[in-house]
Design a protein that fits this description.
It contains eight helices and no strands. The protein is mostly helical. It binds zinc ion. The site of zinc ion has 8 residues, from loops. Zinc ion binds next to loops.
Length: 259
């Protein structure tokens, strides 16, 4: 592929596609937790119900051209929309920059986009939609057959990821008598395992728990409340992105410390 097209063209294409995915992410983030169709109806202004035309829906550019306001009623449009579109472009660029213009690079880009959506949805609604994790898991397992890779770690990783959360959840219920983590976390870790394999998914669990604990301590200034709710999926998603991009480097550093 790289012989046919200039790398600059391919990076540009990745950025544009990523921004379009980011634009669709805005729809997913708003509608999936509310159980609304992600296809219909077309996006409209929530105040004046004016339908958004295709040329007003170009990632980032339209928001800038409209100066962040609805053309019908001048209601401000949140800067979050273009920011998610920019983040989508960044996800696509980082995936192919790190892993090349290969199926592995493509699946890394898709994983980062899925993690972005899941992190934002869980942060806002405390929900991890099965639609995203199941679709992601299928992509992750499917990608493990491409680029001459051995698919076994993907299947093992999915089983270990989902199994680890199930075990923690059952243990928590035995000790505390309440359900600590939901099915959303189980599916999310299954998906992450499919992409990152057994070691990657265990690193993600460790990193997610670490990030979540640090955040909980920081946000309560050290006064942790038992039973407080934490969007664990957001921290798992962040940890998975770190493991994807820097996992081997972190493992080498850690093993170097132990020596
Ligand atoms: Zn309007």
């Amino acid at each position: 592929m790289t012989q046919v097209f200039e790398p600059g063209f391919l990076y540009g294409l990745a950025a544009v596609l990523g921004a379009c995915f980011g634009s669709f992410s805005n729809v997913l983030i708003h509608r999936l937790p509310r159980n609304l169709s992600v296809v219909r109806p077309r996006s409209a202004c929530p105040r004046c119900a004016r339908q958004i035309a295709w040329h007003e829906n170009i990632p980032v550019l339209s928001w800038l051209l409209l100066r962040g306001r609805c053309r019908g009623c001048a209601m401000p449009i949140s800067a979050r929309y273009p920011l998610v579109e920019l983040a989508g472009a960044a996800c696509a660029l980082i995936g192919v920059w790190r892993f090349g213009f290969t199926f592995t690079g493509l699946s890394a880009s898709l994983l980062l986009l899925l993690l972005l959506d899941i992190a934002l949805i869980d942060w806002e609604h405390m929900i991890i939609p099965h639609t995203l994790t199941i679709a992601g898991g299928v992509v992750g397992l499917g990608a493990s057959f491409l680029d001459g890779r051995d698919p076994a770690p993907a299947f093992l990783g999915a089983a270990i990821g989902a199994g680890a959360i199930l075990a923690v959840s059952w243990g928590y219920r035995l000790v505390r008598g309440v359900v600590g983590m939901g099915g959303g976390d189980v599916m999310l870790m299954g998906m992450i395992g499919a992409f990152l394999g057994p070691w990657g998914v265990l690193g993600t669990l460790f990193g997610g728990a670490l990030l979540g604990t640090v955040w909980a301590l920081a946000s309560t200034r050290g006064r942790l409340q038992t039973g407080a709710k934490l969007p664990f999926g957001t921290f798992l998603a962040a940890a998975a992105a770190i493991v994807l991009l820097a996992g081997p480097a972190i493992a080498r550093w850690y093993l170097g410390l132990a020596r």
